[in-house]
Design a protein that fits this description.
The chain is an alpha/beta fold and 803 residues long. The protein has 29 helices and 23 strands. The protein is globular. Bound molecules: phosphoenolpyruvate and magnesium ion (MG).
């Protein structure tokens, strides 16, 4: 039995993950003894899940689920009851077998009838003659009289009851044990999807002409309000993922590949499109090598010959590129061998073009866009002119995914993890990305649209007003001065930091340029980039962090596939193992510092003393070597990030090797709480105000004071007003945050006294949960005009008037 359920579980889970997968091996589940003893097959399950994936309207999806389940289990009735938003009632949300008129009408209290009993007791009920049970309540709208056999299971998602799933039959004996176990398994697998549908609302209302208007809830990725046309961003398929496929329409395939090659050639001619703005100028040399390769007759001829032989264009491209890359790899000459990588890069670009008719051309009309997709990569963002991106909606990812962090830095409103949203069904629709509330609004009706426009205007005016604070210090009313530095990564976002009064760069995420590159940038390319950043901020300090890839930060050209990437090859672990990369990065940074003098090096993901010892040695050697070569570089200050609990516990032993400490509260929270920062399922458990995180932060501050180590904090916590108040009370006097948030946090700090925060900190020391802590701080934030949802008071008020 256990193994049967295990198989069912695995199979359904796989299907839920790969609903659109075309080739699923058919697998027959065992006979459940259900009349008329037909076996439910996996193909039927597949269909249920495919329906889930394809259908947009929650009512249709729920209807499909009960219909397919009834067929699959060969029962007379399958019904789904869902809790109302106030959690007071259960409503029949979909049924196959009971009267369709009862859908949306049949309503039970949470402890009423058999269904209510299941909800109240959170347990399964399997009866042979339901109408004779004391708890049975007849609901006239359903016409359910002839059914005796009754099996119901509760639907629970993330510890919360969302409804009850019921099957019924005419027989007078309970359902067999296997059916019970199967329904429990199905219920647990469907609960997540049903919970999303439930949270969309509208499933128990009559269809109305306003059907196009919907709200979807996600996570607050980056604050702000954006309005624009939905632009679907599809994930790039990599050349490796292309499978053999044929096409009979040779002419169409040839036309498509030729057009793609021409488009990439033109893109290269114009300096790699929008990406070019963010990349060092010397990349142009690489572009001309690419252009030469693209225009070589062999490439086109080989692809076209394969298409003539029956291959479709992507498959013909993949084979040609692989064959050519292999030829280069065999060459004796190292220069020619290195071209293998270039030819693969070209192939990838042509493939992107071939598959991405959705993507705007460089001449795309200058229209406000909301980019929506599963996860929008940094490279995706770089394909659009910044002024065109008014918002980002990701169906996956969390507040701390790097897309959200970049959106924050660039001041683009972002909503993450909107799992129930299917952007592919709404291309071109009007959509609002409300990063304050973590919500997206599809096809808002005219009055709501007008209200959002008003709020966007108001917010812009508010930001302009904040500009007057640019040159004012972030000082509390009783004179405690906080240095507000900025987090940055793209050259393009140096300007917002300076415009918003950043007093330096607290965190330069050097991996971001690596992520929008086509291959590892050379030392010279890096030098050009770092020099621009250091120069833009000089004489203000710039903490340049060495490459921190791994986790959710992957390089398109260097695959690190690990089953547990956050505990794997990340940050300093990766760079120490790939010392050539680390050395060229350190050298580029040191050289870039020569005429600026404001570089400080920062090391990510430190968890051991020997990592800092080795790092320091690499820097000393690089300084010596460069000095010998005539570069007048100096030994910069070296800092380490505290992100891993072991670094915090070993602080006194690490202190001899570091000049300053910067706390990465995103990772520190993740590793202290064992909560994946990027997993929407546990995002409710991720909070930097968790009491354990606060204890850790107080300890770090005290230890750093005792060790005379300057300490700052650069995670997203520094943008959270409640957290900023507590950090100020603890004594943190340097914070690094996204440029967008600097004026707001400055305004906040200038409106409180540090003394008034001390009793608040004392009270939070007694709290057992982040909810209690937030509740304690909320009244103070309200009094200084800061609403719960990070919005300045006037905007929060405006939002309440929205229908
Ligand atoms: C952090 O972990 O808090 C941090 C600033 O680093 P990143 O978000 O880039 O991992
Ligand atoms: Mg980190």
């Amino acid at each position: 039995m256990a193994s049967i359920m295990q198989k069912a579980f695995t199979v359904v889970q796989t299907l839920l993950c790969h609903a659109a997968c075309a080739s699923i091996v058919l697998y027959t589940l065992p006979d459940f003894g259900i009349r008329p003893m037909l076996q439910p097959s996996l193909s039927a399950l597949t269909t249920i899940v495919e329906q889930i994936a394809r259908t947009g309207d929650p009512r249709d999806v729920m209807g499909n689920i009960v219909q397919r389940l009834r067929e699959l289990m060969q029962v007379d009735v399958c019904s789904l009851y869902l809790c109302t938003p106030d959690h007071q009632h259960l409503i029949l949300a979909a049924t196959e077998g009971l009267s369709a008129n009862a859908v949306g009408k049949a309503k039970l209290k949470l402890d009423e009838g058999l269904v209510g009993h299941i909800a109240a007791s959170l347990s399964t009920l399997n009866l042979g003659d339901a109408p004779t049970d004391d708890r049975f309540v007849f609901i006239p709208e359903t016409h359910e009289m002839p059914y005796h056999r009754f099996l119901g299971v509760p639907l629970l998602h993330l510890r919360k009851l969302i409804g009850v799933l019921v099957i019924q039959g005419r027989e007078r004996d309970p359902f067999p044990q296997e059916a019970e176990a199967f329904l429990i398994t199905i219920a647990s697998q469907l609960a997540g999807t049903l919970s999303q549908l439930q949270s969309q609302g509208g499933w128990y209302e009559k269809r109305s002409p306003r059907d196009g208007y919907r709200r979807f809830t996600g996570l607050k990725g980056a604050p702000g309000l954006g309005l624009g046309k939905l632009w679907l961003v599809r994930p790039h398929l990599s050349l490796d993922q292309i499978d053999a496929a044929c096409s009979a329409d040779h002419d169409a395939e040839k036309a498509a590949i030729t057009a793609a090659i021409i488009a990439v050639t033109e893109e290269l001619e114009s300096g790699s499109g929008h990406l070019g703005q963010h990349l060092p100028g010397d990349l142009n040399a690489l572009f001309s090598v690419y252009q030469m390769m693209l225009q070589s007759p062999e490439l086109s001829q080989q692809i076209l010959a394969r298409i003539d032989a029956g291959d479709n264009a992507p498959w013909a491209l993949k084979q040609t590129i692989s064959a050519m890359a292999e030829q280069f790899r065999q060459a004796d000459d190292p220069y020619l061998r290195a071209r293998a990588e270039d030819i693969c890069n070209i192939g990838q670009r042509v493939l992107n073009q071939l598959l991405s008719s959705e993507r705007p051309s460089i001449e795309a009309p200058d229209e406000a866009l909301i980019l929506a997709g599963e996860l929008i990569s940094i490279a995706d963002l770089a394909e659009f002119p910044l002024h065109q991106i008014h918002g980002i909606i990701c169906t996956q990812g969390s507040v701390l995914s790097h897309t959200a962090i970049l959106a924050n830095a660039l001041g683009i409103p972002a909503v993450m993890g909107v799992e129930q949203f299917t952007p592919e069904h709404h291309r071109g629709a009007n959509v609002i990305a409300d990063g304050h509330r973590g919500e997206c609004v599809l096809n808002p009706p005219a009055p709501l649209l007008a209200e959002y426009r008003r709020m966007i205007d108001e917010e812009q005016r508010f930001m302009q007003e904040l500009e007057r604070l640019r040159d004012q210090p972030a000082v509390t009313t009783d004179g405690f001065l906080v240095n507000l530095l900025t987090n940055t990564g793209l050259l393009a976002d140096a300007t917002p930091g300076l415009q918003r009064g950043a007093e330096g760069v607290g965190l330069y995420r050097s991996e971001i340029p690596f992520m929008i590159h086509d291959s590892f940038p050379t030392e010279q390319e890096q030098f050009g980039l770092y020099h621009k950043v250091l120069k833009a901020y000089a004489p203000r300090p710039v903490n340049m962090r060495t490459l921190d890839i791994g986790g959710d930060k992957q390089l398109p050209y260097f695959d690190i596939s690990e089953s547990n990437p956050y505990l794997g090859w990340r940050g300093i672990r990766f760079t120490l193992d790939n010392a050539q990369l680390l050395i060229s990065q350190i050298r580029a940074m040191l050289r870039a510092d020569v005429d600026n003098g404001n570089l400080r090096l920062l090391v990510p993901m430190v968890s051991r003393v020997d990592e800092m010892q080795s790092f320091r040695r690499y820097v000393e050697k690089a300084v010596d070597a460069l000095n010998r070569d005539g570069h007048p570089v100096r030994m910069p200050e070296i800092g380490m990030m505290i992100e891993v609990p072991s670094a915090m516990l070993l602080l006194p032993r690490l202190a001899p090797y570091v000049d300053f400490v910067s706390i990465g509260s995103n990772d520190l929270t993740q590793y202290l709480l064992a909560v994946d920062r990027n997993n929407p399922r546990v995002s409710n458990l991720f909070d930097h105000l968790h009491p354990a995180v606060l204890v850790a932060l107080e300890q770090i501050h005290q230890q750093c004071e005792a060790l005379h180590l300057p300490v700052s904090l650069c995670g997203e916590m520094a943008s959270d007003p409640a957290a900023v108040l507590l950090l100020t009370a603890m004594g943190y006097s340097t914070l690094s945050l996204s440029a967008y948030n600097i004026p707001r946090i400055k305004l906040l700090l200038r409106s409180v006294s540090r003394e008034s925060l001390q009793p608040l900190l004392e009270q939070t020391r007694q709290c057992n949960s982040e909810t209690e802590i937030r509740a304690l701080i909320a009244p103070l934030l309200e009094t200084v005009g800061w609403s719960q949802d990070k919005r300045p008071g006037l905007l929060a008020k405006g939002a309440e008037t929205a229908p």
